[in-house]
C-alpha cells in the first residue's frame, strides 16, 4: 500500500517550493551537531524521539499524526518526484526540512544502505485502554529480544486483526529503528504498549476480562482446536528459552502449534501470525 503523502497535491508542493526559496538549511559536515543528535536517538539515548529512515516510514508517521520534528533530505535526491512529494507533505505540517550531502545522510542514518530521507519524530503514546476495546485479542510479547522479531510481531498483529501488542519484559524496543523497519511503520498507527514487568501486563489483561493463553512448543492444546473467539491475551515467548515457568503456571490455557519432527519450534513472529490469523478466522474477521 502506497502511503497517502505520495499524492500530497498542489498546495503542499507550493508550500515546499516556498521553503526552498526561503533558504533551506544545508548540512555539509559530518561533525555537525545534528548528526550527533540523530546518532544519539538511534542508539536509544533520547527516550522521547525516534529515527525514521525512508519515505515509507516518514509517510506513515505523517499520515498517522505522529509529530515529525525534522526531515533531512539527501540533496542529490531532492528533485525526485517521490522525495518531492514527501517534502511537500512534511512542509504542509510545518516540519523543519534540511538538505544534506550523501555522506552526511549516511552518517545520520542507522541503516547500512541509507535512503534519501531520514527524520526525527516523537514516539507515539498508545492509549492502553484501546488494546482492550470491544472483544480484545492482545499479543503480549515476553522477552522477545530480537528487534526484527518484535517489529514483525507488531506488523502481523495489525494485519490479522489483533487489538494491540504489549511488548513486555526484556523485549527489544518496538520503536527502535530496527523494529520500526520490521513493522513497516505499523507501530506508528497500531496500539503498542511497553510494559517492563510481564506479570503486570498479564494481570492487567486478566483484570480487563481476557483469558490468558500461553504458547508452548509441545504438550499444549492445538491452536486449531482451542476456542479463540472470546477476549484473550496471547503470551508469546522470546527466542530460545520461551516463556518463563511462572507465566506458564499462571496461564489459563497452554496452546501449541502442531509441527512435524524434527522441527522443535517456530520463530516468534511466525507463531504470532498463525495464532492471530486462526483467531481472526474463528471470529470471522477476515
Written overview of the protein:
This protein has ten helices and twelve strands. The protein folds into two domains: 119 residues, 2-Layer Sandwich (60s Ribosomal Protein L30, Chain: A); 156 residues, Alpha/beta knot. The chain is an alpha/beta fold. It starts with 8 loop residues before the first helix and ends with a helix. Helix content is 37%, strand content 20%. The strands form two sheets. Strands 8-7-6-11-9-12-10 form a seven-stranded parallel sheet, sandwiched between helices. A five-stranded mixed sheet has the order 1-4-3-5-2, sandwiched between helices.
Strand content: 15-25%
CATH class group of the largest domain: Alpha Beta
Number of domains: 2
What structural category arises from helix and sheet content? Answer: alpha/beta
What fold name goes in the CATH topology slot of the largest domain?
Alpha/beta knot
Report the average pLDDT across residues: 90
CATH superfamily of the largest domain: SPOUT methyltransferase, trefoil knot domain
Compute the separation of the termini in Å.
18 Å
Question: Spatial order of the strands in the main sheet?
Answer: 8-7-6-11-9-12-10
What would the principal axes of the Cα set say about the shape? elongated
- Biggest β-sheet strands, sense, barrel: 7 strands, parallel
Low-confidence stretches: none
- Spell the H/E element sequence: HEHEHEHEHEEHEHEHEEEHEH
* Helical run tally: 10
**Computed Rg:** 21 Å
What CATH architecture of the largest domain do you see? 3-Layer(aba) Sandwich
Helix content: 25-40%
Amino acid at each position: 500500500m502506497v502511503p497517502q503523502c505520495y499524492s500530497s497535491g498542489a498546495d503542499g508542493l507550493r508550500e515546499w517550493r516556498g521553503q526552498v526559496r526561503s533558504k533551506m538549511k544545508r548540512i555539509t559536515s559530518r561533525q555537525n551537531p545534528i548528526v550527533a543528535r540523530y546518532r544519539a536517538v538511534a542508539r536509544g539515548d533520547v527516550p522521547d524521539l525516534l529515527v525514521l529512515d525512508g519515505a515509507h516510514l516518514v509517510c506513515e508517521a505523517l499520515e498517522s499524526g505522529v509529530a515529525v520534528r525534522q526531515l533531512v533530505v539527501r540533496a542529490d535526491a531532492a528533485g525526485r518526484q517521490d522525495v518531492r512529494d514527501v517534502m511537500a507533505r512534511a512542509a504542509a505540517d510545518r516540519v523543519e526540512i534540511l538538505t544534506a550531502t550523501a555522506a552526511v545522510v549516511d552518517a545520520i542514518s542507522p541503516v547500512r544502505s541509507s535512503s534519501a530521507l531520514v527524520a526525527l519524530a516523537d514516539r507515539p503514546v498508545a492509549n492502553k485502554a484501546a488494546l482492550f476495546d470491544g472483544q480484545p485479542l492482545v499479543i503480549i510479547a515476553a522477552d522477545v529480544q530480537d528487534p526484527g522479531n518484535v517489529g514483525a510481531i507488531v506488523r502481523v498483529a495489525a494485519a490479522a486483526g489483533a487489538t494491540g501488542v504489549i511488548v513486555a519484559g526484556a523485549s527489544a524496543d518496538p520503536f527502535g529503528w530496527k523494529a520500526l523497519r520490521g513493522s513497516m511503520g505499523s507501530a506508528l498507527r497500531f496500539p503498542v504498549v511497553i510494559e517492563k514487568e510481564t506479570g503486570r501486563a498479564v494481570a492487567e489483561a486478566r483484570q480487563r476480562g481476557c483469558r490468558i493463553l500461553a504458547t508452548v512448543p509441545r504438550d499444549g492444546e492445538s491452536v486449531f482446536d482451542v476456542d479463540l473467539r472470546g477476549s484473550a491475551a496471547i503470551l508469546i515467548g522470546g527466542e530460545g528459552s520461551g516463556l518463563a515457568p511462572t507465566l506458564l503456571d499462571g496461564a489459563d490455557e497452554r496452546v501449541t502449534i502442531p509441527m512435524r519432527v524434527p522441527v522443535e519450534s517456530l520463530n516468534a513472529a511466525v507463531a504470532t501470525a498463525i495464532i492471530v490469523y486462526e483467531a481472526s478466522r474463528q471470529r470471522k474477521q477476515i
